[in-house]
Amino acid sequence: MDVNGAAATRRARGRIVMLVDNGVRGDSRVQKTARSAAEAGWEVILLGRQTDPAESSFRLGDAEVRLLPVPTDVNYPSLFRRRSLRRPLAYPAGSRHLNYRLASVQAWRADLVARSAALRTGSTGGLAGLVGRGRIAVGRAAATLLDKWVRFRARETRRLREVRQSPDSLLNRIPVAFWTTVMGDRSWRRLDPSLWSWELAYGRVIDQLEPDLIHAHDVKMIGVGARAALRARARGRPVRFVWDAHEYVPGLRPLAAWWLPAQVAHEREYARYADAVVTVSTALADLLRADHKLPEQPTVVMNAPVTRLSEEELAAPVPDLRALCGIDRDTPLLAYSGGINPVRGVDLVVEALPSLPGVHVAMLSLHPSGRNKPADELYERAERLGVADRVHLLPYVPHWQVSRVLAAADAAVSPLHHLPNHEIALSNKFFEYSHARLPLVVSDVRTMSEVVRSTGQGEVFRAQDLADFVRAVKLVLADPERYRAAYDRPGLLEEWSWEAQAEILDRLYARLLPQAPPRQHPGVGDPGSAVSGPAMAATGA
C-alpha cells in the first residue's frame, strides 16, 4: 500500500490523540504506544511537552508528535503564595521576584564597575572627577549592603520553601486537611493548580484536532483528556476516552505535603469519565478497579520491549557492552538498566562487589549529556570501597537496543526496595532482561519475585539484605544456563513482547470505536510489518 493509501486507511479507522506530560523522547511506553497504533492503521497525533516557547514536531514512524510549550504561571499552590510568619523576611512565593532582585543587584554592580572604568580611562579630572569617584564609592557601598540584604532574604526564601515542602510538618498538613475536607476531590485546584497548566497548553489543540478517541497517559493527563472528551460530547461528538495508568498514585513518594493529596484527588475526580482504563500489571489493575469502583477490569498492556525491528533499526550499530567496560568474554558481568536513586537499591550492587571478586557491573543509567548527582555519589561510594574499576556507568541506548546490548552480560539485577509501586510492577527492565535471556537477581518485591520464582529465570533475595544479595548472585553466576533455560518455554517471550501488547491495545480501540473498519494493512504485530530478525539475545552485543 502506498503512502497516500496508508494515510487514507488511518483516517478511515479513526483519529487518536494521545497526551503525555513529558518530551516523549525519553518515554519508551508512550513511543511504542503511538508508533504501534499508527502502524495498525489509526491516525495518531501525540501531544507532549516542549520546554522552548515555540512548538516543535517530529514523527515516530507513522505517528505525528507535537511538542507544546506549557505555561508556568499557575505552578505554585495558592495556600502557600502568601507571606509566612515562619520566615517573614522571605520573598513572595515563586522564583520570579527573587530572581529579579538578585539580577537587579548584579546589574547595578556591573554598571558601577563600568562607570569606574570609564573614569579611570577618561580625561575627567579635577572636581568633576572627584565627585564622580565619590558617587561610585557611595554606590558601591550601597550595592554591597543591598547585595547582602537580598542574599539574606534569598536564603530565607529557600529555607521557607524547604519547610513548606516537608510532608511531615503540621503547619503544612493543616491547610491540606482543610481543603481536602471542604472540597473533596476538587481540592487539587487549591493544592496543585499547576495541573491547570496542561489544560492551558493542550486543551484548545485537542478541540481543534477533533479526535475520535483520546488516550491520556498517566495522572497529569487524566483531567486534560476527560475535560476534552466532555466538551466534545456536549457539542454532539461521541469522543471515547482511554486513561493509561502507568503507576499507582497513592503509592508514590510525596514531594510535598500538598502534592500527593492533590494528585490523588485529581485522579479520583476524573477516573469516572474513562470509557476504558489501561495499565501495566494485573496487580495495579485490581487496585485501580477497587479504588475507583470501575465497571470493568482495566486492560493490562505490559511494558514489554519491541522485538520486530525496522530495517533502519536493525542496521544501526549495537554498542558492545563488554568493549565499553573494557573487559573480555570470560569476566563475570552483571547488568543493570534504568535510573539511579536510593529506592532502586543500586547502591547494594556496588556494596556487594568486595564480596564478589572479579565481578563487574555495567549500568545503562546515564543521560547522554553525562553523569548526574546520584550516579556521581554511587561512583564515589565505589571508590571508597576500592571497586570503582569494576563499576561501569554507561549512557542509555535506544529502547529497541537495550536487550541486545545487555545480552553480553552474564546476569541482570533489579534490587528494588519495598515501596507500593515496586510491589505491583513488572518494569521495563524486567522484560528487557528477559529478552536478553539473562538470569535475574531480583529483590523480593511481590509481583516480580512471584514471576521469577514461577518461571525459574533467576533468584530472589531479601530487599536491602547485602548478604542475601551476594548469595543470589553467586548462585546464578555458578550455573547461568540453568536459569536461561526458562526462556525456552514456548510462547513466554512472545507474550512478553510489545507486538503482543500492541494487539491487545488495538482490540481495545476497535471495541471502543466499533464503527471503525478493521485493520487493512500489516501492523507492528503482523508478519511483514517490519523486518524480524532472530531472537534479540542471539544477536549479541
Question: Brief description of this entry?
Answer:
This protein is 48% helix and 13% strand. The protein has helices at residues 3-13, 28-39, 96-121, 126-165, 170-183, 188-191, 195-209, 219-234, 259-271, 282-292, 311-315, 321-325, 346-352, 373-385, 402-406, 420-424, 428-435, 446-455, 466-478, 480-484, 492-495, 498-512, 536-539, and strands spanning 15-19, 43-50, 56-60, 63-69, 213-217, 240-245, 276-279, 299-300, 333-337, 360-366, 391-395, 411-414, 440-443, 458-461.
Polypeptide structure, described:
- By secondary structure, the protein is α/β, with parallel strands linked by helices.
- It has three domains: 3-74 and 194-300, Glycogen Phosphorylase B (Rossmann fold, 3-Layer(aba) Sandwich), CATH 3.40.50; 87-169; 316-493, 3-Layer(aba) Sandwich (Rossmann fold).
- Helices cover 48% and strands 13% of the residues.
- The strands form two sheets. The chain has an eight-stranded mixed beta sheet, sandwiched between helices. It has a six-stranded parallel beta sheet with strand order 11-10-9-12-13-14, sandwiched between helices.
- It is globular, with a radius of gyration of 28 Å.
- The two termini are 35 Å apart.
